[in-house]
Amino acid sequence: MDSVSLRVTLNDGHFIPVLGFGTTVPDKVPKDKLIKAAEIAIDAGFRHFDSAYLYQIEEEIGQVIRSKIADGVVKREDIFYTSKLWGTFHRPELVQSCLEMSLKKAQLDYVDLYIIHFPIPLQPGDKIIPKDEHGNVLIDPVDLCDTWEAMEKCKDAGLAKSIGVSNFNRRQLEMILNKPGLKYKPVCNQVECHVYLNQSKMLDYCQSKDIALIAYCTLGSSRDPLWVDQNSPVLLDDPVICAMAKKYKQTSALVALRYLLQRGIVVLARSFNEERIKKFMQVFEFQLTTEDIKVLDGLNRNLRYNSAHFFDGHPNYPFTDEY
Which residues are listed for substrate binding in this entry (predicted)? Predict the structure, then answer.
């Protein structure tokens, strides 16, 4: 980790800030709340924004970034912007068009990182999750390696500085890494990762291949009923984390984030509360002891908040493998 600018070097030589701001918007939250949160985040020091075609918010996030550039708060090169390829665009001939749509919405010339959102190709069309009359998800028989070749072309075209994947298991990562004629290996695998799902095996594997692990759902989750079982435990209420927060005179959220950072993981965080957004930056102001890291390791229960259950049964569903 580059301690001066709080960033790590990716395997293609580009840098990624270790703390990123997530831009998913739960159904109950109006978009203008996220716009305000993104503005506060830039003013607080966030330079890494994680978005996606799926989130339907790229126009608004792009607007925030451009207005902060116009105000002289940041330059474009200060901002690390991520977008993601959705499953209905996995066919090689559609990959670049999805990225171009994201760029057009955000009104940016390039993304810093473009990643395959899920290793799950879906039938092309207007619907985000296409289904038949019986409610079954309509899949598309696209080879992930063919999709990856189209991702490589996006990098060659200068539309994406770096390319990576998300929600891939080890087997799926190896398919890409062992692909004949591989030009660029993924710079990252973005996965759900937190104290209750610490991804230690995936982390070891990615580090052995010089692939950055980027963590989402780092604070548990927003408990959006579309994605999350409402009976799942609230991570930030865990008594061990709460006791540790008291010990370090920090919040539970900061302890949860610090745990991931000290393991060499790039973390994404999100809040719509101004005070909490500003507080995220305090994650760099303290350090957990080796003993406390081990205590937090012991909280792992392989609990996945975001199981993407509606893809269960898809031949590429990634979460049935151990990691």
Answer: 117
Which CA distances in Å does 142 have to 58, 87, 94, 95, 309?
Answer: 26, 10, 12, 12, 21
- Cβ pair 212, 187 in contact under 8 A: yes
Residue 35 DSSP SS3: helix
Residue owning tokens 């390791």: 297
Amino acid (1-letter code) at residue 180: P
Q: Which tokens sit at 146?
A: 């063919």
55 is catalytic: yes
CB 113 within 8 A of CB 160: yes
Q: Which of 270, 240, 245 is nearest to 258 (CA)?
A: 245
53 close to 85: Cβ distance less than 8 angstroms: yes
d(CA 145, CA 186) in angstroms, rounded, equals 12
pLDDT at 221: 67
- Cβ-in-10-Å burial (0-12, 13-18, 19+) of 156 comes to exposed
Asked if 281 and 31 count as a contact pair (C-beta separation under 8 A), the reply is no
- Eight-state DSSP code of residue 137: B
pLDDT tens by residue, 56-89: 999 999 999 999 999 999 999 999 999 999 999 9
CB of 90 closer than 8 Å to CB of 147:
yes
Distance CA 98, CA 106 (A): 13
Q: Is the pLDDT of residue 226 over 80?
A: no
Domains of the chain: 7-320 (3.20.20.100)
Residues at the binding site are 117
Residue 277 near residue 248 (C-beta atoms within 8 A): no
pLDDT band with cut points at 50, 70 and 90 for residue 308: confident
Binding residues for substrate: 117
Checking DSSP bridges between strand 266-269 and strand 19-22, what pairing results, if any?
parallel
Q: How many CB atoms lie within 10 A of CB 176?
A: 23
Which H or E run contains 149?
helix 144-156
